[in-house]
Amino acid sequence: MRVFTEGNRAQAEANGRRILRLEQTLHINRETTLQSPVLAHEWLATLANWFYIWGFWPVLAGTALFLYTRYPAEYVLLRNAVFISGLAGFLFFALLPVAPPRLVDPMLVDTIREHTTWYRTLSPLKVTNQYAAMPSLHVGWSLLVGIAVARASRRWIGYSFAVLMPTAMALAVVVTANHYILDAVVGAAVAAAAFAFALHLPDLRQVHRPVVRPSRPRPRPSGRFPRHTHAATIAGDGRPKP
Fold this sequence. Notes:
By secondary structure, the protein is mostly helical. It has one domain. It contains 12 helices and no strands. The chain has helices at residues 9-26, 31-40, 42-54, 57-70, 72-95, 101-104, 111-115, 117-122, 137-153, 156-175, 181-199, 204-207. The longest helix is centred in the middle third of the chain and has 24 residues, at 72-95.
């Protein structure tokens, strides 16, 4: 759906430069510093590329399937949060098109194009929105996946995953020059807000569940003899047969 929100290139590049200036004001413009060691070591570039590619949709889909089969309540929460944050992201893409750093800063290199050419072949630029850098749903949805796993497992390994997954994705999107640092921050904030909103949504399974009213106890049959007295032993005049 992002392709339908693609904006004007000149406007997107201008917005990208505005974000760079804002990062300079906030002293967080570290994209070039973070990418330098990646460019110096090809294996780091390959690792970042693969995490950017395979750590997004495959991990999201796998986590959703796992939660659907084992923890349905957490699956519903993750699904709702992804939908809400996705809608918010599409509004950003339509109203604030932003070109990624690889198209704005000449000091940055598109590592995926340089080292993983097959990805651009499978996902050609003609069918994707190049100007959807703000916010980074890669980071936002990775945060939601981490939260869902932590809530489901409630163990240290789940909590560690909740921290490492979005952190690693944030590094991957920045060092591959696909997102600014501020994109990652806003993406995480949008996802967190969506998760908080999803927590207060009613459970549709409960809303549409039919109300079962308790049945009234059936009245005991009236008569002068107890219910356990067999009818065959009762004479016509009400006395036991001899």
